[in-house]
Every structure is written in structure tokens, then in C-alpha cells.
Design brief:
The protein is 73% helix and 0% strand. It is mostly helical. It has a domain of 46 residues. The radius of gyration is 24 Å and the shape is globular. The two termini are 44 Å apart. The relative contact order is 0.06.
């Protein structure tokens, strides 16, 4: 990075700033996220490469910060090292934590103590959920919000209760659709949209209770849909047909063929 950002380095790298790097940081994080599934399918080299790309972004940011006399990569690694030691007193100290639930509850308590020690005002506006970014993808945000709340006991007792909630949300959506059939009306459409959101939130909580990361699960389904839809496209191309000349029943038959293949 010293060389890339130097006067004899790369013109593009020299032009980058915190702001211009931000989209690339997000993109690399998502690509690493997807590569986790590749690793689970026996392709760890994909994850290795994507983690390298993500690490490069971290080093890039640290280099820009060093040039601005703000912090260095050593400061970054020292800060996270100290934080992990501090937040694992059951490993590095004399605190006892026999299960993950206790660990997570202690974690939230220590975060609150750290905020107070840093002089961050604890007032009525402070919430346990403030640590969840509202800029995250909605599915990921929902998972993190419910996870945070569950750590302090605000949770369903078991997954069956969430299935009951899911069914309740399905029925409420059906009622909303019946009562607001005119989706072009903004108020009607907003009610239906809200009920769909409630339905997705309930489904996200089922995933959490089953220890499934919903964003990753949906990514898998998206990949599966791409693969099966591509089968339909290939089959129609081989038959010299187009979508316009193909019935929904014919497409469904091809879909079922794709399901049998993978």
C-alpha cells in the first residue's frame, strides 16, 4: 500500500478516499459472505481469495488513515485485540460463563459499561438496538434486531410459537389484501406492505431459532432459482421456442425437471 499510494505508484490508488472506498468495502464483504457457501460446498479457495480482497480493503483504509495522521494498521489490530480480551473475561479473567447465552448477555453489559466509560451519554434515547445499523440489508437487520432483543429475554420460548405467529401474520396479510384490493391506492398499498414486512420478520425469527442465518439461506435459494430458471431457458432454446410461445404449464414441467436434477 505504501508503494501503491506513493508518487511513483498507481494514480487510481492515490485518488481514493474514505468515501470512494466505502462501496468497494461493502462489495468485498458481500463477496466474502457468498464465498462462505462455496467453502461449505468444498471450495475453500474461493473464501480464501475473497477474504484476501476484504483484508486488502482494511489495509487500504488504514493506509489512508495513516497518511491523514489519524491511525495506523497497528492501531486497528491493537484495538480489536484489546476489545476481545476485555469482552471475554470468562477466558482471560475470572468471570464464569458456562453457556453462550450468558456470554452474550455479559457482552451487552460490557458494551454498555464501555459506552459510559467513554463518556457517551446514557439517556432515554439510548437503546440496546442502537448497535444494529439501519443501513444494513433489511433481512440482516431483522435478524440482528431480534437477536439483540433475545439476549435480554425478549423472545419466543420455542420455534412452534413463532410458527403460530407466522400463521397469524399470513392471515392478517390475507385480510389486508381482501380489504385493500386497490393496490394503486397509497394507503391501501402501505397496509399490505406493512403486513408483508411483519410476515418476513416472523420468518426471520424462525431462522434465528433454528440457528440459520437468513441472509445466507435466501442467497442459497436465489442461487437455486437462477440455476433452475436457466434450465428452463436452455430447454426452450433447444426446442426453438420463446417464453411468449410457451404456456405456464410447460414452463412448470421444465421447472420440475430442473428440481430433479438439483
Amino acid at each position: 500500500m505504501d508503494r501503491l499510494r506513493s508518487p511513483t505508484g498507481c494514480p487510481w490508488d492515490r485518488e481514493q478516499t474514505y468515501a470512494t472506498l466505502a462501496p468497494m468495502l461493502l462489495e468485498e464483504a458481500y463477496e466474502a459472505f457468498e464465498a462462505v457457501e462455496e467453502a461449505r460446498e468444498g471450495k475453500p479457495e474461493e473464501l480464501r481469495d475473497e477474504l484476501g480482497d476484504l483484508l486488502f480493503q482494511i489495509v487500504f483504509y488504514a493506509q489512508v488513515a495513516r497518511e491523514r495522521d489519524e491511525f495506523t494498521i497497528d492501531d486497528v489490530t491493537t484495538a480489536i485485540h484489546d476489545k476481545m480480551v476485555r469482552r471475554h473475561p470468562h477466558v482471560f479473567g475470572d468471570v464464569t460463563a458456562d453457556d453462550s447465552a450468558t456470554v452474550l448477555l455479559n457482552w451487552e453489559t460490557m458494551k454498555a459499561e464501555e459506552r459510559r466509560a467513554a463518556g457517551k451519554k446514557e439517556d432515554a434515547k439510548t437503546s440496546l438496538l442502537d448497535g444494529v445499523s439501519s443501513k444494513a440489508p433489511a433481512l440482516m437487520e431483522a435478524h440482528q434486531l431480534s437477536t439483540k432483543a433475545a439476549r435480554v429475554g425478549f423472545d419466543w420460548r420455542n420455534v412452534d410459537e413463532i410458527f403460530d405467529k407466522l400463521q397469524e401474520e399470513i392471515e392478517e396479510l390475507r385480510v389486508a389484501i381482501r380489504n385493500h384490493s386497490d393496490v394503486k391506492d397509497e394507503a391501501n398499498h402501505a397496509h399490505v406492505r406493512e403486513e408483508i414486512g411483519d410476515l418476513l420478520f416472523a420468518a426471520t425469527n424462525i431462522a434465528r431459532h433454528l440457528q440459520v442465518e437468513p441472509e445466507a439461506a435466501l442467497k442459497l435459494t436465489n442461487r437455486k432459482f437462477r440455476r433452475r430458471f436457466r434450465h428452463i431457458e436452455n430447454a426452450l432454446e433447444e426446442q426453438g421456442k420463446t417464453f411468449d410461445s410457451t404456456s405456464i404449464d410447460e414452463m412448470e414441467n421444465l421447472w420440475q425437471q430442473a428440481k430433479q436434477q438439483a
